[in-house]
Write a structure and sequence with these properties.
The complex is a heterodimer of chains A (435) and B (170).
Chain A (H helix, E strand, L loop, with lengths): L2 H10 L9 E4 L3 E5 L23 E4 L9 H17 L2 E2 L9 H7 L8 E4 L13 E4 L2 H10 L2 E4 L3 E7 L8 H11 L7 E5 L8 H10 L8 E2 L4 H6 L21 E6 L6 E3 L8 E3 H5 L7 E5 H4 L2 H11 L9 E5 L3 H9 L2 H8 L2 E2 L20 E4 L15 E4 L2 H10 L27
Parallel strand pairs in A: 2-3, 2-5, 3-4, 5-6, 8-9, 8-11, 9-10, 14-15, 14-17, 15-16, 17-18
Antiparallel strand pairs in A: 1-7, 12-13
Chain B lengths: L9 E8 L6 H4 L9 H5 L19 E4 L12 H7 L3 E4 L4 H9 L4 E3 L12 E5 L4 E4 L5 E3 L5 H8 L3 H7 L4
Parallel strand pairs in B: 1-2, 2-3, 3-4
Antiparallel strand pairs in B: 1-5, 5-6, 6-7
Classes of the chains: A alpha/beta (435), B alpha/beta (170).
Chain lengths: 435, 170
């Protein structure tokens, strides 16, 4: 069995599961975002009477915080009321939390070997911690919260075997863009990562990959519980940690070898990611003028992203016609970036650093695009209309590419802007709660 | 989860969206969240096919390409239902979207080859219990994998919320 199959088998009490099998199981953690609590027929019903295992359920407003309108304010109010009434765990309110997927990692809410569900599609992010995590629909989540159980169709898997080391100037987002261009959609499959190249990637970098594998249309995404991960979770003493490894004879529909040394700076063109990526040089040559540059989201609002963005804009200015919006993945990331001077460097260059929220990435607030505008983003999606008007065009690149483009005023190769980035400290081992 | 009701075969006029990887942002754009239902309806797949939503009649069937409904977990099937779409048949359906179809009770059939046998406007029938997609106009049928019984029962019961209500959770 693969890692995810083992997690499912362990949870549903079977000795083995096979692809295609439907299993019904309890999970270790359910996280509900504010989106579940909007007052609408397809969200959490007002008259919910009883739930199973409320101690396994955590609630975190993140998609639209602070509330940009009355509907969102009401959703947050309902979230708090239902949490109090039904005995869920309230993770953090505005100013003290952040985007769910980052908060899960920072607070070690998910652990190796666990099964984790949330209503958000980027839930596979937590797979970086060797747990099987994925997004379900909101009604599924409500059913899971009520009955204590949900179902999964066991998936076949593909494996990315990483070797080598990223060249200077390429980042985890570029690895994703490389995978999206070379291998494309992996729909219907779980994804596993392995190989010696992993040891060269920080926790943040790996989490960028686990999050972005949602965009390869993956189901579960699993990383091994290597020394980095086991050291990271070693501070957890109140819960059992039962990491999972793939069997030596586990079957994969494909094993893809990826030499990180071959990864170059990439840019995804608007409207799709898979098979829609070009080398930065090909895009930069077109002198595509931008209106907005965005660094943020669960995938790339991490401390390492703010670090490289700050380093790129240090002693430079954001182009007059560009809005450079930076949204940390959590308030802890924000605070640490502030202490380290990244926020100051960004603001001095003319960027705005917002509070942590899904915000511009989900097109909700704090960076919505108008008709005809062009944006380059390091967030999760470049779908048509994703960040606002369907007539806007969204390109995707690494946070370094986004920051360099913000300065240049058009999509550009970050290489000439990386002179301050040669000796950056490795800050990508994660922000730990309470650290 | 004890319902034994079956889903009756559904017959309607086919709308064909042959593009692969149509995402839920295209069905349920964020820009429509704060609009009245009628205005939100008009945005469904509007960026792909402007004005389409206004043409849908109750009982119509949507025929789509590969990995239909990819991306965000937002409950986009509810908007297809609100337009009057009675069933979805696709070359394949994205995992979360398929779950949402089940939980919000939109009959959904994965049927490889469905696009090639359907011209828009054909009369088609979807039989969830046998996994059969039939083109009444041309007489051609194909069978896809039958949705597991537990999921068909959820659809037959009217979706996850109807089941929870029947089971006393609300």
């Amino acid at each position: 069995m693969t890692m995810a199959q083992k997690v499912l088998a362990r949870h549903c009490g079977e000795t083995a599961v096979v692809p295609g099998q439907l299993v019904v199981t309890e999970v270790d953690l359910v996280v509900m975002a504010d989106s579940v609590f909007y007052k609408a027929a397809d969200r959490l019903p007002e008259d919910l009477k009883r739930v199973s295992h409320p101690e396994r359920v955590a609630v975190l407003p993140d998609h639209a915080v602070p509330a940009p309108n009355v509907k969102a304010a009401l959703a947050h109010k309902r979230a708090r009321e239902h949490t109090d009434r039904l005995g869920f765990r309230w993770l953090a309110d505005v100013g003290r939390g952040g985007i769910e997927h980052q908060v899960i990692i920072e607070n070690k809410l998910a652990l190796p070997g666990q099964l984790v569900a949330s209503n958000d599609s980027h839930t596979p992010s937590a797979g970086v911690l060797n747990c099987a995590a994925r997004g379900l629909g909101m009604a599924d989540i409500v059913q899971l919260v009520c009955t204590g159980k949900t179902y999964y169709k066991v998936s076949p898997a593909v494996k990315f075997r990483l070797t080598g080391e990223l060249p200077f100037g390429s980042y985890a987002k570029d690895i994703f863009l490389h995978l999206a261009q070379r291998f494309g959609s992996q729909e219907g499959h779980d994804i596993e990562f392995e190989g010696p190249g992993l040891a060269t990637l920080s926790l943040d970098s790996r989490a960028t990959l686990s999050t972005m594998c949602t965009e390869l249309n993956a189901n579960f995404v699993m990383f091994p519980a290597d020394k980095l991960i086991m050291d990271y979770v070693s501070t957890v003493t109140d819960r059992r940690i039962e990491p999972v490894t793939a069997d030596p004879d586990a079957e994969y529909d494909a094993v893809y070898d990826v030499d990180l040394g071959e990864v170059r700076t990439g840019v995804a063109l608007p409207d799709a990611l898979n098979k829609n990526v070009q080398p930065v040089g090909a895009v930069a040559g077109q002198k595509i003028r931008i209106d907005q540059a965005f660094v943020g989201s669960c995938a790339n609002g991490k401390l390492a992203d703010l670090q490289i963005a700050a380093s790129v804009v240090q002693d430079r200015k954001v182009a007059d016609h560009v809005r450079f919006i930076v949204t940390p993945a959590s308030q802890a990331v924000y605070l640490e970036a502030l202490k380290r001077g990244y926020v100051q460097a960004l603001i001095e260059a003319g960027a705005v650093v917002t509070n942590s929220t899904c915000g511009a990435c989900s097109g909700g607030h704090m960076g919505v695009l108008g008709p005809g505008e062009v944006c380059i983003t390091s967030s999760t999606r470049n779908y048509k209309g994703r960040m606002g008007s369907p007539e806007a065009r969204i390109y995707m690149g690494s946070s370094a590419t986004v920051a360099a483009s913000a300065v240049a005023g058009f999509i550009t190769d970050p290489a000439p802007y990386l002179e301050n980035a040669r000796n950056l400290e490795n800050v990508g081992t994660g922000i730990e709660a309470g650290a | 989860m004890t319902s034994t009701a079956a889903i009756a075969p559904l017959t309607g006029r086919a709308w064909v969206f042959p593009q692969d990887y149509i995402n839920t942002d295209a069905m349920m754009p964020r820009a429509g969240y704060d609009l009245p239902p009628k205005e939100q309806n008009s945005l469904v797949l509007n960026s792909i096919r402007p004005g389409w939503a206004d043409l849908v009649q109750p009982g119509d069937v949507l025929v789509a390409g590969r990995n239909f409904g990819t991306g965000s977990s937002r409950p986009a099937p509810t908007l297809l239902l609100r337009l009057g779409i009675t069933a979805l048949v696709a070359e394949s359906v994205a995992e979360i979207f398929l779950r949402n179809c089940v939980s919000y009770a939109l009959p959904v059939l994965e049927c490889p080859g469905c696009l090639a046998m359907t011209t828009e406007g054909d009369t088609v029938t979807v039989d969830m219990e046998s996994g059969t997609f039939s083109n009444v106009t041309t007489g051609v049928s194909r069978t896809g994998p039958v949705l597991p019984l537990m999921l068909r029962q959820t659809i037959a019961a009217g979706g996850a919320y109807a089941m929870l209500r029947a089971e006393g959770y609300m």
